[in-house]
Design brief:
about 425 residues
Length: about 425
């Protein structure tokens, strides 16, 4: 076994141990604070709700630990265990063609399907045992299966053209192929953002224009006050899958729309919902989407350049247990190995996301009510059984939003919040 192979094994082990260590810290911190509601929330969160959130968090952690172990074993089985070699050999047989593009597509699709099947048992347990135990599951087995099939079909329709383009450019391997691949990737993402709200999302959920009500009047007035235009306010039937609540913006240009889960409307008062929407508008007005897209563009450019540098590096394949040197196996290996190197950057990404959340909160305090947003967040923490006491180091790696205590403290310092 080469030194690079040993380094790869060490990298897999280090990632696994760090992630497991973080989950142990999180579970320990949550359990330590379980007997008592934090002082900042003792008047608004009951002990029963606090303890339910702690139990829910610990149950999710145990499932995450199992998932980490399975993912690490699967990664080693695909690489040093010879799984990629076996799958590519099978793809050659199935393609019955001299076209490396067709063989590569069959291989990548097969890899995606098998990886999904490996994740499926834990997904079933998460939905029908863990989520059901805490009162969040609304999904039926029939809907679960339908979602799986729809996801597979949509993923196939979306992925095949993009993979075909990237494999073709990888095969050409001209000095500028990596740049053309990056441009194709960016165009693909822009197109996906445009068509997702009107083509893809309706395949899974029903979106209806928000009916006239006190909630809608508040939101319409807010949009006008902020000078924000959208294709409409839509209510999504999120309750058919889960009791969790959320709200989001999607699309851009003429397809930009505001989506509210029906569960969220049932949980929040008109003033609270107005504050939540003001926060979401804040993300747009502070140009957070553009900043994130720019960062994604820079990172994807660097990653595609790196992929092309490794394309003909024989050590890259042999060290990871792969005998077939071609664009498809290069893409698979790169996609499997690169996340191992990116773990140290996760806190930086989350720090940027948290900064954006604070800025959006400040915008909401200016255009709605800081106190109403605080009350809305507390309601969502309670209804979603979100822990109020995350471990700080675990949170740096896993939470794109500020911890509850810090976020409420930041909002409490804004004008319009009760002292």
């Amino acid at each position: 076994m080469s030194d690079i192979s040993l380094l790869f094994i060490a990298l897999v082990a280090a990632n696994l141990l760090v992630k497991l260590w973080l989950t142990v810290r999180q579970a320990s911190n949550v359990q330590r604070h379980q007997p008592q509601v934090p002082d900042a929330f003792k008047d608004v969160i009951s002990l029963e709700a606090h303890q339910k959130a702690a139990a829910y968090s610990c149950a999710k952690i145990r499932l995450a630990q199992m998932s980490l172990l399975i993912d690490s074993v699967w990664l080693l089985a695909l690489t040093l265990g010879g799984g990629i070699n076996l799958l590519y050999g099978l793809a050659i047989t199935l393609s019955n063609s001299d076209s490396s593009l067709i063989t590569g597509l069959i291989f990548l699709v097969s890899l995606g399907v098998l990886s999904s099947l490996v994740d499926l048992p834990l997904g079933i347990y998460r939905q029908f045992s863990l989520e059901a135990r805490f009162g969040f599951n609304r999904m039926t087995p029939a809907l679960f299966i339908t979602d799986l099939l729809r996801n597979a079909l949509v993923s196939l329709i979306i992925a095949l053209p993009l993979l075909s383009l990237i494999l073709w450019l990888l095969d050409l391997a001209t000095p500028m192929s990596w740049l053309w691949a990056w441009l194709g990737w960016m165009v693909f993402n822009a197109l996906l953002l445009f068509i997702y709200p009107v083509v893809i999302a309706p395949l899974f959920n029903k979106f209806t224009p928000m009916p006239d009500s006190e909630h809608k009047q508040k939101l319409d007035a807010l949009l006008q006050r902020c000078g924000f235009s959208a294709a409409g306010l839509f209510v999504m039937d999120g309750s058919k899958r889960s009791a969790h609540a959320n709200a989001y913006f999607t699309g851009f240009g003429k397809n930009r729309r505001i989506v509210l889960f029906d569960t969220l409307i049932n949980q929040l008062s008109p003033n609270q919902l107005e504050a939540v929407l003001a926060h979401e508008i804040g993300h747009y007005q502070c140009k957070h989407l553009q900043k994130r897209l720019t960062l994604m563009a820079v990172i994807s450019l660097a990653l595609l350049w790196s992929l092309f540098q490794l394309l003909h590096a024989s050590w890259f394949y042999s060290a990871l247990g792969v005998n077939m040197v071609n664009p498809a196996t290069a893409l698979a290996l790169f996609s499997l190995a690169m996340p191992l190197c990116l773990l140290p950057l996760t806190p930086l990404s989350n720090a940027l996301s948290r900064k954006h959340e604070y800025e959006a909160d400040a915008y909401a305090a200016q255009h709605a009510s800081a106190q109403e947003l605080i009350d809305a967040l507390i309601t969502m923490y309670r209804e979603n059984a979100a822990t109020l006491t995350p471990d700080p180091i675990y949170s740096l790696f896993h939470d794109s939003h500020p911890p509850a205590t810090l976020r409420i403290a930041h909002l409490s310092a804004q004008p319009g919040a009760r002292a």
